[in-house]
Amino acid sequence: MPLAPVLLAEWIKIRTLRSLVGSLAGILVATAAFSALASADAGTDDPDPLFSVFLGVGFGQIAAIAFGTTALSSEFRGGALRLTLAAVPDRRRWFAAKATAIALPVLAVGLLTGVVTLLVGKAVLGALGPSWTEGLRGAVGCGLHLTLMALFATGLAAVLRSGVATLSILIPFLLIVSFVIGDLSAGVADYLPDRAGQVALHSTWEGSLGPWTGLAVAAVWTGAALFAGAWSIQRRDA
């Protein structure tokens, strides 16, 4: 079967599940709301106004992870994957279509989220906010980072074959472990996927990564997770 009808079928699955639509909405709402609060609380001497505008991405990425995890792990409930593979025997093609069907809406919502968050932040901060050049870089970085985190969760969910297990690992990691490692390490935490991807959301960064190299590091993590997920889907029984 060609890729296009497989992709269409996977998109239909996603848009008909209310929990997935809710996760997409949560990306926008959580990011914009928490970013607006951070912008309102920023002082006149804020050294990093761009990150104040996009601070809510740390919360929005949880919704993106939930979206990627749920979209993939739903295939392991009730024998759904066996039915899917009966229609699409080529497992690699199916997994590629599933990952694409997850990535495209998250990218669209992520870019919209970046633009909305930037406009809200600029309105709140006024002259104290980042420049439009920095802001647009942050908006694009926001969309790319959220997409990479959703796909990272997709790959991990394919390996673990459980949404609960995936979220039980990723959410505590993002909320606790990443910050603890960042406080204790000397730059090692900059190469973790969540922290590397957010370098693009900073006006200044003291680490060795830049905005685009940080996103590249996050992309390497995501590629590794998707490769492991594809290998697991290919090798293990449905």
Our count of helices gives 10
Distance between the termini: 19 Å
Cα shape? elongated
How many strands, which pairing sense, and closed or not: the largest β-sheet? none
Indicate the structural class.
Answer: mainly alpha
Helix content: over 70%
Describe this structure in words.
The protein is mostly helical and 238 residues long. The chain contains ten helices and no strands. Helix 6 (91-125) runs antiparallel to helix 7 (132-160) and helix 7 (132-160) packs across helix 8. The relative contact order is 0.15. The model has no long low-confidence stretch (mean pLDDT 89).
Secondary-structure blueprint:
Elements: H1 3-15, H2 18-41, H3 49-53, H4 57-73, H5 80-87, H6 91-125, H7 132-160, H8 163-184, H9 193-197, H10 211-235
Helix pairs in contact: 1-6, 2-4, 2-6, 4-6, 4-7, 4-8, 6-7, 6-10, 7-8, 7-10
Name a few traits of the molecule.
238 residues, mainly alpha, 0% strand
Short characterization:
By secondary structure, this protein is an all-alpha fold.
